[in-house]
Design brief:
Elements: E1 3-4, H1 15-25, H2 37-57, E2 64-67, H3 70-87, E3 92-96, H4 101-112, E4 116-120, H5 130-136, E5 141-145, H6 159-169, E6 172-176, E7 195-199, E8 210-214, H7 240-255, H8 257-276, E9 281-283, E10 294-299, H9 304-313, E11 316-317, H10 333-337, H11 342-345, E12 348-352, H12 359-378, H13 381-387
Parallel strand pairs: 1-11, 3-4, 3-5, 5-6, 6-7
Antiparallel strand pairs: 2-8, 7-8, 9-10, 10-12
Helix pairs in contact: 1-7, 2-7, 3-4, 8-12, 9-12
The protein binds pyridoxal-5'-phosphate.
Length: 395
């Protein structure tokens, strides 16, 4: 059996996205900035896509800026939020310890430029506390950036409440919603969001396209210099095929949001229940504030990397955490922020599901993982060491 359970790293493109893309790879080749009929045709399609994306977020079309990826949207929003703050003499930013590297590394860059960043703790459950956010706000706080859904452990942050606090205090609020958009309902007005990043390839659109929502009252400066595209803020001829596909994919996800959430959540719950039966295993992140598709576990006494290789041999595509940190031997900053010791954070497994997965696949995962964990433990010196102090659960 083959099971793709790494949807938080990227998703397969949907038929809908592919079909929306095809015309732009063929007849719809005009440059949307051209005045002639081919240009107008492309521009019309582009406007439609912008409106569709805006509708899914409860925003206005002119508040959507297409970008090359989610990382770009994060960089742009945070750098601009900081710049606007600095102009008013405010150089304090609030974020949290479990952000994606697109956010964390942008913040590190700003720290080197003299900004002061407070990283809120997320506690054992992986959730930011509203009281701690309020307590961290200072006179010179200009920006709060807290992700909507965490990509490694799937926790959902109290975005609406954070947004309300920021609005009340007149502080800009950005959220990296790359794992949320297309998966859970996102409403920028109801959630009090000023800026939001999204990425197409996390909801069945192609890779290499994303968007930044920026409230119309906020005056963004240009991300790059160039032509008049994206209201002059991000020059460069638009990636029409990818943008049309992204709009179609998001429209489809939003139309089926409830049924997809129900289906994916049921699979996640079954997976969590089954994996919890493995001795000395535990589920990471609050069970009450969870995105539908992301499951993260730690298994004591094993190495996550060996687990992944064995699962790959069994046809299961999974991850140990974020795709961005794999390849380095450092344990995930997200798992460490939950307070897990290094040796336990090393034995992590992330399974991320989408509506294309089936309950049969979940059952297959539940047959394979316990066996692989057991085999690896039998070869593990760390496990042997643990057995000196506890009864062998496999006897
Ligand atoms: C994938 C991801 C990103 C980066 O998006 P790209 O389009 O791959 O640049 C940013 N934040 C989160 C939470 C993600 O999961």
């Amino acid at each position: 059996m083959f099971v793709y359970a790494d949807n938080a790293a990227t998703t397969a493109m949907s038929k809908t996205a592919e079909e929306a893309m095809l015309p732009a790879l063929g007849e719809l080749y005009g440059n949307p900035s051209s005045l002639h009929q081919k240009g107008r045709e492309a521009n019309f399609a582009l406007m439609g896509a912008r409106e569709a994306i805006a509708r899914c977020l409860n925003a206005e079309a002119r508040e959507i800026y297409f970008t090359g990826c989610g990382t770009e949207a994060d960089n742009w929003a945070i750098t601009e939020g900081a710049r606007m703050g600095a102009e008013q003499g405010k150089k304090h930013i609030i974020s949290d310890a479990i952000e994606h590297h697109a956010v964390l590394h942008t913040l590190k860059k700003l720290e080197k430029q003299g900004f002061d960043v407070t990283y809120l703790p997320v506690h054992k459950d992986g959730v930011v506390r509203l009281e701690e956010l309020k307590a961290a706000i200072r006179e010179d706080t200009c920006l709060v950036t807290v992700m909507y859904v965490n990509n490694e452990i799937g926790t959902i942050q109290p975005i609406q409440e954070i947004g309300a606090v920021c609005r009340e205090r007149g502080i800009l609020f950005h959220t990296d919603a790359v794992q949320a958009v297309g998966h859970v309902p996102v409403d920028v007005a109801a959630d009090n969001i000023d800026m939001l990043s999204l990425s197409g390839h996390k909801f069945h659109a192609p890779k290499g396209v994303g968007a930044l929502y920026c409230k119309k009252s906020i005056r963004l400066k240009n991300f790059i210099e160039g032509g008049a595209q994206e209201r002059g803020r991000r020059g460069g001829t638009e990636a029409i095929p990818a943008i049309l596909a992204m709009a179609a994919a998001l429209t489809e996800s939003c139309a089926h949001m409830e049924e997809n959430m129900a289906k994916v959540s049921a699979m996640r719950e079954r997976l969590t229940e089954g994996l919890s039966k493995i001795p000395y295993s535990f589920c990471n992140g609050s069970a009450d504030h969870k995105a539908p598709g992301i499951v993260s576990f730690c298994f004591e006494g094993i190495e996550g990397e060996s687990l992944l290789l064995r699962l790959d041999l069994a046809g299961i595509c999974a991850s140990s955490g974020s795709a961005c940190t794999s390849g380095s031997l450092d344990p995930s900053h997200v798992l460490l922020a939950l307070g897990l010791p290094h040796e336990i954070a090393h034995g992590s497994l992330r399974l991320s599901l989408c509506e294309y997965n089936t309950m049969e696949e979940v059952e297959y995962i539940l047959q394979q993982v316990p066996e692989v964990v057991r085999t690896l433990r039998q070869m593990s010196p760390v496990w042997m060491h643990m057995l000196e102090k506890m009864p062998d659960p496999y006897r």
